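Record passed on here:
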Amino acid sequence: MGRAESLYACLCQAARLDPGACALVIDGQEYTYAELVARVNRCAAGLAKAGVRPGDAVAVAFPNSLDFIVGAFAAFALDTILVPLNPRFKEEELRHYLQLSRPTALLYPQSMQALIDTLDVPSVVRATSTEAVSVVEAADQPPTGSDKLTGIYMFSSGSTGKSKRVTRTQAQVLGEYRALAATIALSASDRILCTVPLFHAHGFGNALLASLLSGGRLVLVTSEFNARATMQALTSQAITVYPAVPFMFKMLADTRFQTPPDLSALRLAFSAGAALPEAVSKKFNEVFAKPVSQLYGSTETGAISINVLHPLDKPTTVGRPLHGTRIEIRDENGRKLAANENGEVWVAAGTATSAYDGLADMTAECFSDGCFFTGDMGTLDADGDLTITGRKKLLINVAGYKVDPLEVEEVLARHVQVSDVVVIGVEHAGAGEKIKAVVVLKEPGAAASQELIDYAAAHLAEYKVPKLVEFRPEIPRSPLGKVLRKYL
């Protein structure tokens, strides 16, 4: 490979240093670095033979699996743009994301075949496994091209009712990995357990790249989260780093184990995606004698800060910036605020994108002078530790997934019996928030709560579906028609 600054090159470097080392453990099955790179090369060669070229987009919609990892690195090997997608997206959502990314290749599990068949989205390659497109290639490594357009597409929710496409280059993603690695001292001796989705920025950056680019071991448990299975992996694999989300730490702390688990190898557990309740952090430490740090990040920037210095003394903070990242607190006029003053969190980092693709107005609102305006409110104390105090925008944080209430409202409003609807987030221990829909029906009693929940579930991914439905005769509004959310 000609370029040194690429994610694929870093994986190959780790394989050259110790080809026989275990790279992956997936439901107990081990794969060496040499085996992983060979699979990546075969998949990349097959994609290239089928017509995929540098700068094209490659969508990978697998759940946590060997196929996801091979497909992702094959995309990077070919200098294409990786588009990681949630395999649980419904037809409307998947069509929207595919239209935004326009992939040349679409890789997905067999369970999605019927859904894919309903979509009129052209692509050169469609396959239900990476092995299905793999070919034996004489060259040790697949061909590569320019990296100007290569990297990753992810999607960030906002106030527009639809997700915004975010492009980050391989250099930016690699910079994020290096900043995290320097901050938490990642090495080839680390064993990282991943129980969060790899298509999500948290799992992708803080588990997949953190382990494999360091030459360490990534352990995947592919079933739905289960506290006992997770604890079995933590202990039997001598896990050293465990990135998860609040509800996972809560379930682990609340589960009774017959034999006290041995977590002596675990040097760092950290939560991201939603605020970690202090009670959960405290109980986890009481039960396992291990603190839980908090990491803060965004789709636009990757990881921003982590509280590794004092997770017990300051459990509600998200710590200090990663190496090379600057955090500032600004008021509504863009004025930099002093320590402990509350304002919007601005981030400057070489890992961050500088625009929303095709959305000039939204870009102007959220990016300026090398900074990204996160929309989160927070304070920096005298030590430089960041505390998130709330949101400037209306996004709902469901276990780390950012849900735009306007998108959910748009779906529910299409129901034949719904006259008016407002969607809000309500506090939920361990998961940040859960979604509540406040609904005005055209006729009282014309629809039941479960009917509306089922309707939303037919059009939206599970995490976007309301868990609560409240019926009201009208939505409280100001004289100017603005929804008075404080009364909901």
Remarks:
- The two ends are 57 Å apart (CA to CA).
- The chain is about 30% helix and 25% strand.
- The chain has a mean pLDDT of 91.
